[in-house]
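Problem 12. The chain below contains 306 residues. Write out its predicted structure in token notation.
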Amino acid sequence: MALNWPGLLAWSTKYHDGTAPSNFQKMTDEDRAFLENAMEEAFGKIEDPNQVVLEALGQIRAEDRTDASICTSLEVIDRMCDDPDVSRNIEKLGGVQILYDLARSHGGSIRPRTLELLALLFSNNPNIQEAGVKRGGIKLFFELTREAPVASEDRSKAFRALVALVRHIEAHEDTMLRSEGGLALLVELLDLKEESRTREKVASFVVSLASNANLREEEAGTLLSAVAPLLEGVAAEGVQYREMVAACCLELARLSPPTSLPSLGDAVQARLSALRSAGAKAGDGDEGAEMASLQECLDVIAGRKA
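Solution.
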């Protein structure tokens, strides 16, 4: 059964009446609630989610497409991706290339939503990751990340899509790091001018690379010089951010050249001292995991000096 696209698009009439260029903006909570209710009603009658996604992709490519119809189609695809069959078949349906083209051609609220959806499709999905790499995803996401303003949503979402594309596939991580200049990009995105969620994502990716033994000593040393300064202002960030930065410091302490460790040790010791002064204890409370990682980091540094 085909979806009632006019019904799904009813929420958009206040933005676009067909007589003037669209001034479409990001959906309000009210608009999203209306659309979600409309989708719930429509999806209850759907027998083949792959056909629904095919229709949505057709809406994205349609000559008479509007920003509202594109946005609605992205929401429909997102909802259908709950079905594992859709995630497996998105490349067969032509979806990867269509979403790549959309990320290139449309800015505003559409680009970050498209990138968010691509990251979802790539996550823990090796076959689609392979398809995404073959279609030039690494270069595309690099370009979008570098072209986007510092601390922007576009920049954050483009980097997240890049990480989802290559993560846990050694050959593609290697290409990203060593053929496309990924190491320099990681250092750039660790700058304090970037939003904390982006820095946290970089730290998480570094931990993953280290855990998978896909980070060389000299690369770890380069990253260490960018990660260590984050400890000074870490107290102003959330628990998850603090824990991830501490975990990243620990992994880099294990891998970096011994000559680069003293500066990390000083930064870790300063953060631990501040935590202890505030009454925090390793393994206890919100600071427990952070303190445990930082203490282990110091132990690793001391052991590598011996």
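Discussion. The longest helix spans residues 288-305. Students who got a different answer should revisit the alignment rule from Section 12.3.
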